[in-house]
Amino acid sequence: MMHMIFDRYHKVFISSMAILLAVSLLSACNYFEARMSADRGYRSYLNRQFAEAIKHYQRAIELSPSNSEIRRNLGYAHLGAAKETTLKAETDRHYRLAIEHLGKVLAEDPDDKELAGVMLDTWTQADRLDDAARFYQARMHSSPGDIETLRLLGMIEIRRGNYQAALDTYETRHKLMPDDMQLYASKAILCWEWLRSGGLNDPTQALRIASLGLDAALEVDRKDPKHPSALVYAGLLLRERATRQVNQDEAQKDLLAAQRYLEKLRSRKPSTETLNTKNSIKSTSIYQVEDLGKEAHV
Q1: Average pLDDT by stretches of 10, the chain with 298 residues
Q2: Is 260 exposed, middle or buried (0-12, 13-18, 19+ CB in 10 A)?
Q3: Distance CA 250, CA 231 (A)
Q4: Partner of 115 at 20 to 30 A CA spacing, among 11, 86, 240, 264?
Q5: Residues 6+ positions from 190 with CB-CB distance below 8 Å
Q6: Percent helix, strand and coil across the chain, each rounded to 5?
Q7: According to the model, what pLDDT value does residue 195 have?
Q8: In 3-state terms, what secondary structure has residue 278?
Q9: 8 Å CB contact between 120 and 98
């Protein structure tokens, strides 16, 4: 009797082992086939054959759905296809799929700054910044006070033209990082961009924003006299404030102060970095100050 019971369990054990072995072999085969498909996708991507790359990466992700590297590259292939096609419906489809795949990868690794930058650019190009805002607002609810999420939300609001909302995120970040000079510099540029955009119709508010940006620029210069652009933006903000002054004497004071800051900047012994920054300051924007890495295929 015991022999019969042992024999029955022995057969069950052997059957289970056979199933496990079959599953293992199947998994191994899927892994190698997925890698081969991914390699073909990579070569197609390098040759800008994006439709072929998508086909190979799609097959690879079907075989290895948890492989974030393959999913990332599938998203990049869709981005490449979106930029190549001239049909709006196809462009929208590829952007949608790129956001879908890259969003899954970013959800697994929220601290991937390079990918966050790619996603932000993709939402911008796809004209889906509202979706981007919802994505990071949801993250703020789950991780209140997360510095990186606040930074990205600020950039999104700037791109949407919501300067006050962007400034609010900067103020929140300032409370969390009171000694971050890059944040002061970004605030100064944000205020200048807002004034330059023509979106401030209330003269009192315009004066307040100009003064807020000026204070931020001067704080950067006070803490770091070698900062390459703090005094430049101080001068720009003073000129913007001068145009909003009701009192002409106050306007003249602002213009004279702007000139003094320019002369102060010229009197300092310029480093190569300072010269390069001064030569390119006309094209500097808030996007360049805090923007992230560009797309990178892995």
Answers
A1: 44 41 48 87 94 94 91 95 93 95 91 89 93 89 84 91 93 90 92 91 93 96 91 96 94 96 82 44 41 40
A2: middle
A3: 20
A4: 86
A5: 154, 158, 163, 166, 167, 170, 213, 286
A6: 80, 0, 20
A7: 94
A8: helix
A9: no
State the pLDDT at residue 18. 41
**Global pTM value:** 0.68
Is 244 in contact with 201 (CB distance < 8 Å)?
no
Would you tell me how many other CB atoms lie within 10 Å of the CB of residue 191? 31
Cα–Cα distance measured from residue 258 to residue 204, given in angstroms and rounded to the nearest whole number: 20
pLDDT of residue 28: 54
pLDDT digits (tens, 9 = 90+) for 170-223: 999 989 988 889 899 999 999 999 999 988 889 999 999 999 999 999 999 999
Map out the domains of the chain as residue ranges.
Answer: 179-298
| Cα 49 to Cα 12: distance, rounded to the nearest angstrom | 51
Cβ-in-10-Å burial (0-12, 13-18, 19+) of 120 comes to buried
Give dist(CA 84, CA 137) in Å, integer.
32
Residues 107-122: pLDDT tens digits?
A: 898 888 899 889 999 9
Give pLDDT, residue 27: 52
Long-range contacts formed by 139-145: CB under 8 A, 24+ apart: 139/110, 143/110, 145/172, 145/176
The token pair that represents 89 in the structure block: 């419906």
Which residues contact residue 268 at a Cβ distance below 8 angstroms, ignoring those fewer than 6 apart?
225, 226, 274
Name the DSSP class of 242: H
Structural element, H or E, at residue 232:
helix 230-244
Candidates 69, 98, 67, 68; CA nearest to 81 is: 98
Three-class DSSP category at 59: helix
